[in-house]
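Justification of computing resources. Each target in the renewal requires a structure prediction run like the one illustrated here; the chain below, 112 residues long, is used simply to show the kind of job we budget for.
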Amino acid sequence: MNSKISSQMLKGILSGCILVLLSKKSLYGYTLGVELANVGFKNVPKGTIYPLLLNLEKKGLIQGKSVPSPEGPKRKYYQLTEQGMVEKETFVEEWSLLKNSVEYLLQKENDK
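Resulting C-alpha cells:
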C-alpha cells in the first residue's frame, strides 16, 4: 500500500474495513493490525488503529471486552454491535458504488 494515501481517506476506509473484519470474528487491536496487513494495508501505523477503535466504540458500532491473556496483560477484544452490523452493510454498499464510479471514470480517462 502506498504510504502517500491521504490520512483522512485512509481512516474512513479503515473504519469500514475494521467493521468488515469484526463481522467475521472478535479481534483485539494487534490482531486487527495483522489482519489489515494481510489484506494489503501493510504500512498502517499501529497508532492509527487504536484511535479508530475508540471512535467506533464511542459511536456504538463496536464493543470491547477485556479478556485475560496467557501471554501477559488482558486484551480488549472487539465485536460488532447490531448498529455496527448495519453500518458495515452500509459501508459495503457505499464502497461498491464508489469503487464502480471511480473505476468507470478512470476507464473513460484511459480511453481518451
